[in-house]
Task: inverse folding
């Protein structure tokens, strides 16, 4: 078993995101090829986004820091620190209203 400090990893990813032109950074912290579960930290600087993309299947976003908007099919769901958002089974985008870090959990299989 391994243990990870999510606050420390979140800060690391946010620092990397601030240093890039895209305003984002991501790191998979659990799961690899052939595993049924993948968890990835995604950091977005305020005003940046993950452009619309296909749904990965069953997935959730836990907002570890900041405030985001999950957008799909002309709907929008706000997420604040501590919120858990279920990603709809549709193309979607993620916008950062302020510097934010989310934990994306995807069930594969």
Result:
């Amino acid at each position: 078993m391994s243990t990870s400090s999510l606050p420390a990893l979140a800060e690391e990813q946010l620092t990397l995101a601030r240093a890039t032109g895209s305003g984002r950074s991501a790191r998979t912290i659990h799961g690899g090829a052939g595993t049924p579960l993948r968890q990835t930290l995604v950091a977005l600087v305020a005003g940046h986004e993950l452009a619309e993309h296909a749904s990965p299947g069953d997935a959730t976003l836990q907002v570890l820091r900041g405030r985001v908007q999950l957008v799909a099919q002309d709907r929008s769901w706000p997420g604040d620190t501590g919120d858990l958002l279920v990603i709809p089974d549709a193309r979607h985008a993620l916008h950062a209203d302020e510097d934010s870090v989310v934990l994306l959990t995807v069930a594969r299989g």
The CA atoms of residues 16 and 74 lie 31 Å apart. The first strand starts at residue 24 and ends at 30. The chain has a mean pLDDT of 93.
